[in-house]
Amino acid sequence: MNYRIGVDIGGMSIKVGVVDENFNIIARHSVVTPDTFEKSMKATADAVMEVIGKLGLTIHDFPCVGIGTPGSVVPETGRLCFSNNTNWKDVPMADELKKYIPIPVYIANDANCAIIGETVAGAAKGRKHVIMLTLGTGVGGGIVINGKVFSGGNGVGAELGHMVLTHDGYPCTCGMNGCLESYASATALMRQTREAIEAHPESAMNAWVQENGEVNGKTAFECAKAGDETAMQVVDTYVGYLANGIGSLINIFRPEVVLIGGGVSNAGDFFLNKIRERMPEYTFAFDITGPTPIERATLGNDAGIIGASYLDEM
Hints:
- By secondary structure, this protein is α/β, with parallel strands linked by helices.
- The protein contains 11 helices and 13 strands.
- The strands form 3 sheets. Strands 3-2-1-4-8 form a 5-stranded mixed sheet, with helices on both faces. A 5-stranded mixed sheet has the order 11-10-9-12-13, with helices on both faces. Strands 5-6-7 form a 3-stranded antiparallel sheet.
- A hairpin with a 4-residue loop joins β6 (79-83) and β7 (88-91).
- α5 packs antiparallel against α8 and α7 (219-225) crosses α8 (229-253).
- The chain is globular and about 60 Å long.
């Protein structure tokens, strides 16, 4: 049996998994992300050793360790340029981990790891040209061309969430204005929902919030499904922003499939069908080329670990 090991580093936790040759995660371990970069790297290495110990294996039973992390990474050097989730800037992640891990270490952006996972084992298995957007606190993204992850000439490209959608638009956490992330993330959806509730307190969304405690990514979708007019307007506006961004990506790359992941994707076919309906507005030569499939990612939170474990092949 051939085993691989993948790590998903986040702002709150570090998750490690051992992946078998059938792409199943057969052992897991997670720890809270420490408050400094150096401590986090040591905690990552310790978590790796902990999880392989559960299986009675040693580090030399693995070809490499793959790491997915938020932020911009230079793959050739394993250096993390910047991550606003962890507030690490220009740190030697690979070199630091090699102090504790005596086999090759590969590092990539977490969204790239997610699309690798979906390409080798999930919704895009068997496809060579794939785009994936993850809709959560921000908008992550990944591109696979000819079966390989595309990350630009310096390794820090493919920041799909920071494609500018609207000139001088809504401020983004990256410091620019009008990014796709500032309109199509779950955070943006919640902002749009709150604004609609404030403008229309008679909306069923207001009652939904009173019952459920707070606005979240489900609020507008659940109330739209129930027929609330204001909620339907919120959903239609949000979907319009997202479809605009997806259409631009299709026009540039013409992938075989576009995958949607992250928390917002849990709205399911109700959400995906609305995106599909809007694509003729934003896709060049749609009447000739026809629709590009838009599907929900299937691996969920496991995509990052599975994808990270295959970084040496992508």
